[in-house]
What we know:
By secondary structure, the protein is α/β, with parallel strands linked by helices. A hairpin with a 2-residue loop joins strand 1 and strand 2. Strands 14-15-18-19-20-21-22-23 form an 8-stranded parallel barrel. A 6-stranded antiparallel sheet has the order 24-25-26-31-28-29, with helices on one face. The longest helix has 20 residues. The chain contains 15 helices and 31 strands.
Amino acid sequence: MGPTVTGPYADGMSPPPPRPMRDLPPPPGVTRVEGGVELCVYAGHADTVDVCLFDAGDREGGSERRIPLTERAHGFWFGHLRGVTPGQRYAVRASGPWQPENGLRYNESKLLLDPYARAIEGGVRVAPPAFGHQVGVELAGDTGLRDHRDSKAYVPRCVVVDERFDWEGDAPPHRSLAESVVYEVHVKNLTQQLSGIPDHLRGTYAGLAHPVTLEHLTRLGVTAVELLPVHAFTCEPEVLRRGLTNHWGYNTLGFFAPHAAYASASDPQGVLDEFKGMVKLLHRAGLEVILDVVYNHTAEQSATGMTLSWRGLDNRAYYRLDDRGHDIDVTGCGNTVDLRHPVVCRLVLDSLRYWVEECHVDGFRFDLAVALARGRYDDYDMNHPFLVALRTDPVLSRVKNIAEPWDLGIHGWRTGQFPPPFSEWNDRFRDGVRSFWLAGLGRDREDRQGHGVQDLATRLAGSQDLFGMRDRGPIASVNFVAAHDGFTTRDLTTYDVKHNEANLEGNRDGSDNNLSWNHGVEGPTADPDIESARHRSIRNLLGTLLTSTGVPMINAGDEFGRTQGGNNNPFCQDNETSWFAWDLAPWQQDLLETTRFLIRLRATLPVLRQRTFASGRLVRQDGSTDIAWYDRAGQPMNQAVWTDPSVRTLAMYLDGAELGERSVLVLVHGGANPAQVTLPTPPGLTAYELLWDSAWERPQPPEVVDPTTEPVEVAAASMRVYRAAVQLP
């Protein structure tokens, strides 16, 4: 049964209940009130807006009942729907001018999603009626001609849900960035093939929070999961034409609704409750939840794409357009959401607050964040209203906010240029560490000029060249060597070039600048020496990541050497290419133990987790400084050594005096041959403990080393971590 239709107001509309300041619209979206709900949507240039109610299970739309919204203020259309309760399926239609040259594309034949919908049911059926303009069977046509076919059988429905949930006293872990280790992971990939999880929970929110998954995450030692997009999304038509699907989710359909396909529950209310239950159980295990959010573009793509929500409500408000009504695309996805418009800026801020306040998430990673902060003249603006609003918001300013500091527009690379308290993905760390341990090592083995140590030292110490301004500190740097986008860490050591043929784009997609090295053979090999060298390189990459100052982020699966077969862009591979294989070989078990050990080591050595930059300042009366750099002979580095590209050995000494902790020495040797290295002997130091050597296939007990006797021999392409065993006050 639908809502009751009574009173003098047409089609179920009833007088709004008394409320103060009725000249202002209610909050956008659905608000539950006595006797029903209020619905409010923004359609600033529309002539009419109708609410469309549907019975549950009606995919074709035969039960549609249209109710006009008769109240309007400041571009918002709103009204009271008597009798509407949780479970009601709905959408909207908007009529108005069809003026593509002015950016207006109203079409009342197209059913539209409420941008504030908390739940979305059903998928998009890609066919000509789903487009606002006229297209043929090949989905190409004239974007200037309005299409009058009804889209209701081809698009999803919004669903009214009950926001109440028993959080059982849930308390976010509130991990400091200095102690954080982030684990970037796809909801489905992690558990789709994980034994011990019931089949019906694999690849779901519930599977991610299952005790078997939690055991892996907590034993690993990470402090936060950063989930690839979980906002409701759909697939691009061109990907479907190749017989593939959008697997990563960077194609948003709704900014408030969790993606239903990731839930084991089948009803919309159950999807939302399952997501909240996942967050609650992850918190209970001490893990924070960070969402990868895509506010820079939507699934509607360019004007040649479908009309699903925002375009049909107010194309000119929601998207960046030029003077001819064409999309300005700095995202590579066809459109760019325009956060210069106050309604759009509010939409994003409301969405973020919803996920924090109602779903208890702990932070966000902003995809293509530069696109969110392009100002009036399309230049990046550090003081963009959205960034100011987010930084000053009493809720959002207190969670973790991480920028992907680039987009595809002009001057789009902005690493280090976001304001505090933002942290940023540090691509310079990624490239510098790969260059030293892989590309540089390959050149060194061939007696060609390698990659020196100067840039690596900067990355080890927290990238002060990028994040030293505005008192940001090294916690502004999210360090990583691999992420979802690109080679896995194992594939960095196995392939010189990408192998993306399965994506059916002629191997043209994905980056060609991987800074990888296959160690002499492209792809898998049975040569034990090459395999051993590859495994050591993986340990070097992870060891550098976890001993560097900053916030480390691990690409999920790298802890045990996951491979994607050389595919560095598997966004469309919802199969074994992306799903984790948990039947680990002995060397993978060794690597997993090594990664666990390195994360524990980081947690027990405070000098590796500092919130401020080490600057060479005095910390002891004997002249010791907070950080010191030494060469292969155990002598302080000089300018000639720093700038010599053939130098492949470096020791970083972090003094623990200010923290009341023992000091740590990180020794890196990127040469293709073993080397004799003299360990430095700062004042007061009499011995070291060797805590870890990347030449070890598996962690070993500490070894006491006397640095005053003779040099130590380090293996080719390896690194070590020492702790000062004895040091005078």
